[in-house]
């Protein structure tokens, strides 16, 4: 039996239940946003201008952000605003379709892949549920695309996603080069270590319906991304929070910026120098929040471990070397790595 969709639950809450949500969505006190969000002045989360002609400055800023936060936003990234707007528009249209139409893209129950429309993603230790529905599908490389999971409605969905993926590749290549240089390595090293042109781009659309009790629920619980890096397009409803110095900080919404998360594979490759960011999503009482992360990850059979250039007697390997598919399996099932 497939879990009930959160969008359907949100729509079904009657006016008498306007201040309540099902108990399985109420987080423990140590996770409730109202109790755990930092309310004082927020330290400056790095915003980096990717058009800066001074490459040394870019390398330094990205390396610092990756060490300090594991998270930054980029502006002047070169993806045309209309390409991003189309991506957002077709995604929003899909989630506004009747439930039966969306269910045609549901993730098959026995699937080993993440692709498809769904609600539950990974094992939740306390049995709590996240206030979110999602759609996953690969957008690159062409050999890994399965159009079965790409909505046919709206009709421009495929074109909008292919155009975005094409533009995104240049941004990802530039970021991986800058991260490589930031570790004191040649610019191609990280990209090659995660599969080169076989690096897989998995798009996820998160749909967080309006929630009567945003003080008690979470859209996505605290986690780090399995990816090498994640490039995220938000909508204008705030909700992304990052964890630093034992505090949860709101990430400011910057129009037309891309949000970059350092993922677990970069932390492993850098032998811990760059940090995979712990983050979560809050929800909104009045409006639906949406986001479009693309997880850039090694192919399943790719073996990833600390880069040999960064390991020596004084700095031994801090992580195991393993196939990415094995890492992913352990992560989703909350097993030790």
From TrEMBL:
Its cofactor is L-ascorbate. GO terms for molecular function: dioxygenase activity; L-ascorbic acid binding; metal ion binding. GO terms for biological process: flavonoid biosynthetic process; pigment biosynthetic process. InterPro entries: DIOX_N, IPNS-like_FE2OG_OXY, IPNS-like_sf, Iron_ascorbate_oxido_reductase, Oxoglu/Fe-dep_dioxygenase_dom. Residues 198-298 form the Fe2OG dioxygenase domain. It holds the Pfam family DIOX_N. Keywords: Dioxygenase, Flavonoid biosynthesis, Iron, Metal-binding, Oxidoreductase, Vitamin C. Belongs to the iron/ascorbate-dependent oxidoreductase family. PANTHER family: 2-OXOGLUTARATE (2OG) AND FE(II)-DEPENDENT OXYGENASE SUPERFAMILY PROTEIN-RELATED. This is Oxoglutarate/iron-dependent dioxygenase.
């Amino acid at each position: 039996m497939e879990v009930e969709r959160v969008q359907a639950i949100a729509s079904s809450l009657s006016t008498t239940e306007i201040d309540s949500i099902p108990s399985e969505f109420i987080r423990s006190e140590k996770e409730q946003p109202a109790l755990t969000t930092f309310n004082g002045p927020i330290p400056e989360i790095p915003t980096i201008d990717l058009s800066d002609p001074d490459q040394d400055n870019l390398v330094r800023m990205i390396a610092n952000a990756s060490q300090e936060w594991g998270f930054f936003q980029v502006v002047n990234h070169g993806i045309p605003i209309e390409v991003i707007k189309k991506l957002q528009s077709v995604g929003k249209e899909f989630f506004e379709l009747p439930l039966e139409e969306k269910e045609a893209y549901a993730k098959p129950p026995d699937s080993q892949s993440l692709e498809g429309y769904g609600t539950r993603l990974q094992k939740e230790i306390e049995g709590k549920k996240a206030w979110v529905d999602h759609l996953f599908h690969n957008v690159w490389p062409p050999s890994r695309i399965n159009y079965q999971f790409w909505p046919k409605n709206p009709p421009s969905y495929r074109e909008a996603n292919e155009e975005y993926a094409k533009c995104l590749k240049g941004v990802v290549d530039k970021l991986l080069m800058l991260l490589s240089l930031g570790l004191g390595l040649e610019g191609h090293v990280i990209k090659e270590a995660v599969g080169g042109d076989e690096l897989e781009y998995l798009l996820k659309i998160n749909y967080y319906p309006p929630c009567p009790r945003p003080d008690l629920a979470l859209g996505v619980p605290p986690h780090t991304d399995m990816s090498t890096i994640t490039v995220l397009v938000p909508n204008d409803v705030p909700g992304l929070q990052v964890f630093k110095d034992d505090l949860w900080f709101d990430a400011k919404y910057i129009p037309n910026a891309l949000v970059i998360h350092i993922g677990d594979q970069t932390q492993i490759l850098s032998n811990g120098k760059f940090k995979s960011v712990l983050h979560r999503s809050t929800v909104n009482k009045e409006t639906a929040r949406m986001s479009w992360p693309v997880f850039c990850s090694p192919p399943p059979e790719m073996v990833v471990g600390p880069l040999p250039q960064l390991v020596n007697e004084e700095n031994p390997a801090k992580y195991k070397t393993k196939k990415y598919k094995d890492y992913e399996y352990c992560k989703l099932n909350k097993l030790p790595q």
